[in-house]
Amino acid sequence: MIRSLVRIFGLKAPRSKGSEPYSGSEAETINRISRALEALEPDRARHIAAFAFILSRVAHADSNVSEEETREMEQRVMQWGNLPKPQAALVVQIARHQNLLFGGTDNFIVTRAFKETATAEEKAGLLHCLFAVSASDDSISSIEEAAITQIASELGIGREEMTEARRAYRDKRAVLKNLPL
Q1: Per-residue pLDDT reduced to its tens digit, 132-164
Q2: CB 164: neighbour CB atoms within 10 A?
Q3: Where are the domains of the chain?
Q4: Among 85, 16, 8, which residue's Cα sits nearest to residue 53?
């Protein structure tokens, strides 16, 4: 099961001779999510998995994923992937696990893979979803905003498009909250 999940995400799992890379309840959760993703057509599963991983990347940027951010990610994955709520929740869970395990090393790899398969409209949609996830707890921190800017750059999204997307979330940007109008 772990191999199929790693294949879907296009990542390499840590291996120790003769053992699963995860243990206990973590392995059970990852196995359950892997089975849910295996039911999808492989290209679609990879696209949705990359989308969820990138959302998780922004949610983890400040080292704290709030309940609001998790719910927003689930909602966005449901809409993006046209998935039922339980399956979207599983996809978000695995994305969060993958981000915790591999985030530092695989952030760029997953984003590049998404860039290669996504249309311009999908990239723009992802950008808006990144802002929505980071704003879900009523504040986009400067760390989250920096992560979104980095992701936009990796996706090949230009400065104008980034500025336009950010403008829609002006009232949620922590850097602007205490400025006089």
Answers
A1: 999 998 889 999 999 999 999 999 999 999 999
A2: 13
A3: 2-10+23-177
A4: 8
CA dist 16 → 4, 19, 20, 22, 133 (Å): 17, 6, 7, 10, 35
- Per DSSP, 63 falls in state S
pTM to 2 decimal places: 0.77
* Spatial distance between the Cα atoms of 112 and 3, rounded to a whole number of angstroms: 21
Helix, strand and coil content of the chain, in percent to the nearest 5, comes to 75, 0, 25
2-10+23-177: which CATH topology?
TerB-like (1.10.3680)
DSSP for 83-135 reads: --HHHHHHHHHHHHHHHHHHHHHHHHHHHHHHHHH--HHHHHHHHHHHHHHHH
Q: Give CA angle at 71 (111, 21), nearest 5°.
A: 55
Tokens representing 7 are 């294949």
